[in-house]
Amino acid sequence: MDDDRGLADFARRWTEAERLGDVAALDALLTDDFTAVGPHGFVLDKKQWIDRYASGALIHDDFTWEEVTVRRHGRAAIAVGVQGQQSIYDGRDADGHFRVTQMIVADGADWKLAAVHLSPTACRPGPEA
């Protein structure tokens, strides 16, 4: 596995799956023991993360993953970046920018997301931030 190319491909596939709310793709991209810490401190497991899309509660008009830095640690990697979204959650505006930390682990020839932590930020990506 070409790790750098594989991680770049993982980031592209994850961003697209989140933007589209692609339940099947997210199921394949997340580890079975995936854990998310949301921007207000709540914790979701894999099923709860995916169910936000399956139920139709979360819809993105736009979803970006920018200013990403990746540090490799053997068969794992930590990615830190800025997630931007124009979204509706449960009928309410859920637009925002979040500083995100991802823990990505090698699973055979693939990379999978094991954990994610979102922190709200007023900063938009780019040099003017």
From TrEMBL:
SUPFAM superfamilies: NTF2-like. InterPro entries: DUF4440, NTF2-like_dom_sf. Residues 10-113 form the DUF4440 domain. Pfam families: DUF4440. Gene3D superfamilies: 3.10.450.50. Signal peptide: none annotated. This is DUF4440 domain-containing protein.
